[in-house]
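Bumping my old thread because nobody answered last time. Still need a sequence for this structure:
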């Protein structure tokens, strides 16, 4: 229930009014910038920009923290892996049988900050962009690939449906867990074998429900005359204005500055 990616919030904010194509391109540019290693200075620059974007998007900081809570186990696992693998830097803690090096802590912190930034960027995009607008934006950006017979509209539709059904499947999983718990299934306590059995009691009904929803969606699209590959018209036409250019320009400036800093 802590996953917020795919949830659209109908708010009236500056970010909601921006062109979805510009927001999508800016997200890709910032994610590329995250992987350019210029130290914590770069993360601080992107972090400051994201905090400002969260404020103007009217997105709660608690929403980002809830998304990261689901990754807490993975971060702890990576930390223990880095303890045994990374042996660089000074020794921060000597427990006798194991030594924790500076490199292990910094490497784990790098990964955590990168994940936090990427989750924040993706959350801002999905929270401030309608699923249908996101579909049309992806289709427009993939438009030039039609020369090579790439089905841009179908790809955009698949991505949009996948994002749209993330919160739906989460709600369905929560409903199944409550139903199984009422029948005596314990997802918290028990041995490893019992926990595996409990997970199977959740996964199997969830898969069955997912296939049923997919079939219902296919029937609904067919009943409404949807034919893949056919030429389609739009009611809404996107227009880029000066504020959209400003958002894109800031994203490009961050990426270029990171590249220059990394090269120097």
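Sorry it took so long. Here it is:
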């Amino acid at each position: 229930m802590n996953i917020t990616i795919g949830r659209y919030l109908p708010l009236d904010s500056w970010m909601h009014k921006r062109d979805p194509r510009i927001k999508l391109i800016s997200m890709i540019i910032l994610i590329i910038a995250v992987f350019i290693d210029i130290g914590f200075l770069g993360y601080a620059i992107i972090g400051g920009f994201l905090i400002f974007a969260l404020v103007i998007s009217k997105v709660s900081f608690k929403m980002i923290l809830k998304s990261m809570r689901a990754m807490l186990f993975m971060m702890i696992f990576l930390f223990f892996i880095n303890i045994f693998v990374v042996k660089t830097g000074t020794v921060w803690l000597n427990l006798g049988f194991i030594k924790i090096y500076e490199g292990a802590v910094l490497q784990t912190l790098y990964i955590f900050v990168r994940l936090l930034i990427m989750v924040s960027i993706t959350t801002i995009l999905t929270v401030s962009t309608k699923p249908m607008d996101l579909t049309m934006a992806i289709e427009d950006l993939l438009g030039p690939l039609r020369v090579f017979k790439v089905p841009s509209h179908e790809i955009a539709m698949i991505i949009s449906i996948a994002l749209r059904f993330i919160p739906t499947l989460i709600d369905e999983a929560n409903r199944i867990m409550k139903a199984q718990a009422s029948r005596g299934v314990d997802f918290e306590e028990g041995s490893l074998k019992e926990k595996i059995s409990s997970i199977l009691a959740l996964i199997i009904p969830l898969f069955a429900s997912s296939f049923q929803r997919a079939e219902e969606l296919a029937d609904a699209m067919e009943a409404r005359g949807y034919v893949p590959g056919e030429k389609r018209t739009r009611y809404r036409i996107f227009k880029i204005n000066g504020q959209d250019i400003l958002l894109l320009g800031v994203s490009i400036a961050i990426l270029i500055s990171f590249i220059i800093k990394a090269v120097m």
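The CA atoms of residues 6 and 167 lie 6 Å apart. Let me know if any region looks off to you.
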